[in-house]
Design brief:
Number of strands: 7
Low-confidence stretches: 1-5, 182-186
Mean pLDDT: 87
Largest sheet: 7 strands, mixed
Radius of gyration: 18 Å
Distance between the termini: 50 Å
Order of helices and strands: EEHHEEEHEHEHHHHH
Shape: globular
Length: 228
């Protein structure tokens, strides 16, 4: 049958590989952690996570079923999180996407890098016109992330899988592909970078070159980087 997406995605710093049988410990770490689940729901029990893992592995064998990928930092070969696409809707020609990262991996632009690559892969592999996400309004980090990626509210459209009271944003194929060569950084992402730098002691004492390299990883325009 037709696969939901590519089995392996590589970026400059990350590798997105399919979820495997041996990844149960990573799932337990993410889904049982109150901090990670703060904007998602209640932490899950080990038994529930194990059952969900088995169901997810089974569903991944279906032609247009959900796909979960482990996010691997290439330099350390360390698993730093999980990203996914849910079952694609052929009727709505859309698919939902999401990501969870370990606490220590939530800075440095890893989420943006992973989801940008995943969005590219989805539009290349799937018969969909829209990739969309949903998140709680209180999750300011998610808002900044999807703002930076160019996801926005789509007037008059709300996918059937969207839950009530959650923010829903999407990006359409034509807009994504036309903006990919030179995607502009939003002001909210600049603000997010400054907030993270203020909380990170290493960033507060970093050299100019280190700061410029960090801003380059975030995709911040060179002129803005020099000013910052």
């Amino acid at each position: 049958g037709r696969a939901t997406g590519p089995t392996l995605i590589a970026t400059s710093r990350l590798l997105l590989r399919p979820l495997a049988e041996g990844d149960l410990a990573l799932l337990c770490e993410l889904y049982s952690d109150p901090g990670t689940m703060r904007h998602i729901g209640r932490p899950l029990s080990s038994a529930y996570i194990e059952a969900s893992h088995r169901a997810t592995m089974d569903a991944a064998r279906q032609p247009l079923g959900p796909r979960f990928s482990v996010v691997v930092e290439r330099s350390s070969n360390r698993d730093i999180g999980l990203c996914s696409t849910q079952a694609a809707s052929l009727h709505e020609r859309s698919v939902e996407m999401g990501i969870m990262l370990r606490p220590e991996a939530r800075r440095g632009g890893f989420a943006k890098e992973a989801l940008s690559a995943l969005t590219n892969a989805v539009f290349e592999a799937l018969p969909v016109d829209t990739v969309w996400v949903q998140y709680r309004q209180a999750n300011r980090g998610a808002a900044r992330l999807f703002d930076a990626l160019g996801f926005s509210q789509i007037d008059g459209w709300r996918p059937s899988g969207a839950r009530l009271r959650l923010c829903v944003r999407g990006v359409q194929r034509a807009a994504w592909q036309s903006n990919q060569p030179q995607r502009a950084i939003s002001m909210s992402n600049v603000v997010g970078f400054l907030e993270n730098a203020g909380r990170d002691a290493a960033m507060r004492h970093a050299s100019r070159q280190q700061l410029l390299e960090a801003m380059q990883r975030e995709g911040i325009d060179q002129t803005v980087s020099a000013a910052l």
